UniProtKB/TrEMBL annotation:
Alphabetized Gene3D superfamilies for the sequence: 3.40.190.290, Winged helix-like DNA-binding domain superfamily/Winged helix DNA-binding domain
Highest rank taxon of the organism: Bacteria
Annotated protein name in UniProt: LysR family transcriptional regulator
Keyword set, alphabetical order: DNA-binding, Transcription, Transcription regulation
GO molecular function, one term: DNA-binding transcription factor activity
InterPro entries: LysR-type_TF_proteobact-type (IPR058163), LysR_HTH_N (IPR000847), LysR_subst-bd (IPR005119), WH-like_DNA-bd_sf (IPR036388), WH_DNA-bd_sf (IPR036390)
Stated family: Belongs to the LysR transcriptional regulatory family.
Domain HTH lysR-type as annotated: residue spans: 1-58
Biological process annotations from GO: DNA-templated transcription
């Protein structure tokens, strides 16, 4: 007979502490601590070394997790699979995605998904910070980072074409840079990563080689929509995606700068758990995103260029 507390123990091991496990399970930290203590009592084993600031597995704890962790996951998968076959897709689906990209690309695809699957509750978390998908209990993640977690599967979802833009008033006043090296003479609006705290470099292709330049200026933002707004106000030059600047370029408000030096498009990945069983709500959401998106490779680039 499987102890009721075993899935709680496994959640604590995977999350690294009681509070994160409690958040994933939807219970209090006290309830998690009590369940683990009861399991230790029932087994007659000490499973964790506990201190004020750390929680580590004992040798017995390592052995228990090694022998039971995958088996419990497989059992839970089979139970969910049987349930999904009998019910319409339902439940809460937690999705982590970048702020600007999420609002611009993903959010427009949500109404048709909700209309088709009204019993699935979509919990969208807009955040440019790159978090731990498994630890945060999210079902799906979308972002540009490569998959460095063996627990996750990453599929290419979208391609973002980075471009440099400036508005007409700025170019009329300060001129148009002709090469990447001339950017030092301009006010460059930098983007600071919410994850690393560092400014993002600007990438260019010069004679087939990758050239990276750190933008220098008197404005730094941590949101690309803010960068676009700053360009609109004539503050300087910013690196954004075509999607961010498309309407402004089509209306003749922005110039696309140094197009012949633009770097390759950046792949945006959709991440999800690598466990054998994928809940119906997760599979349906991923399929919907992949079937309905239109990435920046499909935008007519020539129609979006305004020469001086």
């Amino acid at each position: 007979m499987i102890p009721n507390q075993l899935p709680v123990f496994i959640a604590v091991v995977k999350n690294g502490n009681f509070s994160e496990a409690a958040r994933q399970l939807g219970v209090s930290s006290a309830a998690v601590s009590k369940a683990v203590a009861q399991l230790e009592k029932n087994l007659g084993l000490r499973l964790f070394h506990r201190t004020t600031h750390s929680l580590t597995l004992t040798e017995d704890g390592h052995d228990l997790f090694r022998r039971t962790g995958q088996l419990v996951d497989q059992l839970e998968d089979q139970i969910r699979l049987s349930t999904d076959k009998q019910k319409a897709p339902h439940g809460r689906l937690k999705v982590n995605l970048p702020d600007s990209f999420g609002r611009m690309v993903v959010l427009p695809l949500i109404p048709s998904f909700i209309e088709k699957y009204p019993d699935i509750e979509i919990d969208l978390r807009f955040d440019d910070r790159i978090g731990d998908l498994v630890k945060e209990g999210a079902d799906v993640g979308i972002g540009v980072m490569l998959n460095q977690d063996s627990r996750l599967i990453a599929r290419e979802f979208y391609k973002v074409q980075p471009i440099l833009v400036a508005n007409r008033c700025y170019v009329d006043k300060y001129g148009m840079p002709k090469t990447p090296s001339e950017l030092v003479e301009h006010n460059c609006i930098a983007y600071r990563s919410s994850t690393t705290g560092r400014k993002k470099t600007w990438n260019f292709r010069v004679d087939g080689e990758l050239l990276q330049i750190e933008p220098e200026g008197n404005l730094i933002v941590n949101n690309l929509s803010a960068a676009v707004k700053a360009v609109e106000m004539g503050v300087g030059i910013a690196a954004v995606s075509i999607g961010h600047a498309k309407n402004y370029i089509e209306q003749g408000c922005f110039y696309r700068i140094l197009r012949e030096y633009e770097a390759d498009p950046i792949p945006v990945m959709i991440y999800y758990s690598s466990r054998n069983y994928l809940p119906a709500k997760t599979r349906l959401f991923i399929d919907h995103m992949l079937d309905h998106f239109h990435d920046e490779r499909e935008i007519n680039m020539d129609d979006m260029i305004h020469e001086i």
